[in-house]
From TrEMBL:
<dbReference type="InterPro" id="IPR030390">
    <property type="entry name" value="MeTrfase_TrmA_AS"/>
</dbReference>
<dbReference type="InterPro" id="IPR010280">
    <property type="entry name" value="U5_MeTrfase_fam"/>
</dbReference>
<keyword id="KW-0949">S-adenosyl-L-methionine</keyword>
<keyword id="KW-0808">Transferase</keyword>
<keyword id="KW-0819">tRNA processing</keyword>
<feature type="binding site">
    <location>
        <position position="219"/>
    </location>
    <ligand>
        <name>S-adenosyl-L-methionine</name>
    </ligand>
</feature>
<dbReference type="InterPro" id="IPR030391">
    <property type="entry name" value="MeTrfase_TrmA_CS"/>
</dbReference>
<feature type="binding site">
    <location>
        <position position="186"/>
    </location>
    <ligand>
        <name>S-adenosyl-L-methionine</name>
    </ligand>
</feature>
<dbReference type="Pfam" id="PF05958">
    <property type="entry name" value="tRNA_U5-meth_tr"/>
</dbReference>
<keyword id="KW-0489">Methyltransferase</keyword>
<feature type="active site" description="Nucleophile">
    <location>
        <position position="320"/>
    </location>
</feature>
<dbReference type="InterPro" id="IPR029063">
    <property type="entry name" value="SAM-dependent_MTases_sf"/>
</dbReference>
<comment type="function">
    <text>Dual-specificity methyltransferase that catalyzes the formation of 5-methyluridine at position 54 (m5U54) in all tRNAs, and that of position 341 (m5U341) in tmRNA (transfer-mRNA).</text>
</comment>
<comment type="similarity">
    <text>Belongs to the class I-like SAM-binding methyltransferase superfamily. RNA M5U methyltransferase family. TrmA subfamily.</text>
</comment>
<protein>
    <recommendedName>
        <fullName>tRNA/tmRNA (uracil-C(5))-methyltransferase</fullName>
        <ecNumber>2.1.1.35</ecNumber>
    </recommendedName>
</protein>
<feature type="active site">
    <location>
        <position position="320"/>
    </location>
</feature>
<dbReference type="InterPro" id="IPR011869">
    <property type="entry name" value="TrmA_MeTrfase"/>
</dbReference>
Length: 362
């Protein structure tokens, strides 16, 4: 399904059906009904990527239908995209079509926006970007009031910055995040805010220290740090770790350390299987971990990480793939019971479902 145009009247019914399917799938492990966090029915997506289709001397935005990746179709609106994306799309396209330099061999345009009104536009080419391109892009940047980034093979041209700044108001406090182009960020801003608030509520009565695996740019980590004595978080992406360090400083967090380790490496470290130079300044024995937060990729937790996570008294498990979360629950529910269960509708009008679980040791 191509989501450039949706019928918002169908949203509530689709969400109810999605919740019913999720509850039935999890019934072997819990009788709880999921707490449902609906998305705004339109303009919810903060990032978008479009193919640029050239026809009769003009550039157009285009998308593909599922299973038809050789047959793009031209679009002139994107109602699931943020209002800022929809405002910028025609302005960028008009400028591209008015400039042979900007238009020539342009094959993709990406938009990254925030709830707080920031934006970054990335133009991607099958050609080397020269000084003439830079001058034209600079003029477009000044006209739009938002930064332009140029990419081609082995080339990245940053005119001003390669990131946006997001501000999320959660439980009476504003958190600031640097989100770098090309790194992972939550695509649905309102659902992101709901997920963080739900995680904070789930940990409200916790005591001890927090371990987080797959922490990204500190999306969950930074707000949760205020509810624990100490926090240790891990992430494998260098770009995300650097962003997280910037976000720690921007939010004035003092009790949080982030290290660049995969979940498999951290499992080896905590089991003292092997030392890691990246943990040189971290004394793992000084932590009294009571809770572990995991938000893994679609593959879920590997067997060793799943076994390590099961040692914790409380497990907060955010999943972008209920199928692999269910596979992990076959092991985790041997030692833990589900106390909270949530559905986060990150991608309305699709079968995609994101879920949240709080598991407590039996």
């Amino acid at each position: 399904m191509a989501l450039h145009r949706v019928n918002t009247d169908d949203y509530r019914q689709q969400l109810a059906e999605k919740a019913q399917r999720l509850q039935e799938a999890y019934r072997p492990y819990t009788d709880l009904e999921p707490e449902i966090f609906p998305s705004p029915p339109s303009h919810y997506r903060l990032r978008a990527e479009f193919k640029v289709w050239h026809e009769q001397g003009r550039a157009h935005y285009a998308m593909y239908r599922e299973g038809e990746h050789k047959k793009p179709f031209v679009i002139d609106e994107f109602t699931v995209g943020s209002e800022l994306i929809n405002q910028l799309m025609p302005k960028v396209l008009e400028a591209v079509n008015a400039s042979e330099v900007l238009k020539k061999r342009l094959f993709s345009a990406e938009f990254l926006t925030t709830l707080s009104g920031d934006a970054l536009i990335t133009l991607i080419y099958h050609k080397k970007l020269d000084e003439q391109w830079r001058a034209e892009a600079q003029a477009l940047q000044e006209k739009l009031g938002f930064p332009i980034l140029g990419r081609s093979r082995k080339q990245k041209v940053v005119l001003e910055r390669d990131y946006v700044t997001e501000q999320l108001d959660i439980h009476g406090r504003t958190y600031q995040y640097k989100q770098v182009e090309g790194s992972f960020t939550q695509p649905n801003g309102e659902i992101c805010r709901a997920m963080i608030g739900w995680a904070m509520d789930a940990c409200a009565d916790d005591e001890g220290d927090l371990l987080e695996l797959y922490c990204g740019n500190g999306n969950f980590t930074i707000p949760l740090a205020g509810q624990f004595r100490k926090v240790l978080a891990t992430e494998i992406s260098k770009v995300s770790v650097a962003s997280a360090q910037d976000n720690i400083r921007a939010n004035g967090v003092k009790n949080l350390d982030i290290v660049r380790l995969s979940s498999e490496e951290f499992t080896q470290a905590i089991d003292k299987v092997r030392p890691f130079r990246r943990l040189g300044d971290i004394d793992l024995d000084s932590y009294d971990f009571s809770t572990v937060l995991v938000d893994p990729p679609r593959a879920g937790l590997d067997p060793d990480t799943c076994a390590m996570v099961a040692r914790f008294s409380r497990i907060l498990y955010i999943s972008c793939n209920p199928h692999t979360q269910l596979e992990n629950l076959a092991e985790l529910t041997k030692t833990h019971r589900i106390e909270r269960f949530a559905l986060f509708d990150q991608f309305p009008y699709t079968d995609h479902t994101e879920s949240g679980l709080l598991l407590v040791r039996k």
